[in-house]
Design brief:
This protein has 5 helices and 7 strands; from the N terminus they run ααααββαβββββ. It is an alpha+beta fold. Helix 3 runs antiparallel to helix 4.
């Protein structure tokens, strides 16, 4: 049956076997063209998304800023409002629950330390009700000896609960001092 179809195509088109070769080549080129256009379209769509952050992207970043505001004010209730009950952090060489982290910050404040934390260059990624953020925290630590500029590289994993983003995991690494 395949031979009959080929003969029929040759007879109708009057082109012989070169028609079949050109047809297959054109199909390959067309498929390659369609795949390339699809890839470029999806890449450009992703680029447009990162250029204009969604409301969720902004809310994730603001949740991190609220976390630092709570820590600055020693406000445990506010810290609880922006973290999940099973929150934990890797900071200062250890693993801390949210209450233990606040205890450590309060002790530093009581010893006269003043921290300034800022969120710079945030990169937010969202997948359903989970998000992760990476950013550079440029701040300072002030004590009796003076003020020292400090940079931390930080990341966090957040979960959306009842329309609000809450921090589930937080990680901070102090960047080496620039010399």
């Amino acid at each position: 049956m395949m031979k009959d179809e080929t003969k029929a195509k040759r007879a109708l088109c009057g082109r012989g076997s070169s028609y079949l070769v050109r047809s297959k080549t054109m199909t390959k080129h067309l498929s390659l063209f369609i795949a390339t256009v699809s890839l470029l379209s999806s890449t450009m769509a992703g680029a447009n998304q990162s250029e204009s952050p969604t409301a969720d992207h902004v809310q994730v970043t603001e949740t991190i800023r609220s976390f630092f505001a709570a820590a600055t004010a020693d406000d445990l209730d506010k810290l609880h409002a922006v973290t999940t009950p099973d929150f934990y952090a890797f900071d200062a060489g250890g693993r801390f629950t949210r209450d233990a982290l606040m205890d450590m910050i309060k002790a530093a404040h009581a010893a006269g330390k003043v921290y300034v934390w800022t969120v710079n260059e945030p990169e937010v990624h969202i997948s359903g009700d989970m998000a992760w953020i990476t950013y550079v925290n440029r701040g300072s630590i002030k004590d009796a000896s003076g003020t020292k500029d400090v940079t931390w590289l930080e990341s966090a994993v957040l979960q959306k609960e009842k329309g609000a983003w809450r921090i589930h995991f937080f990680h901070s690494t102090r960047a080496p001092e620039k010399k």
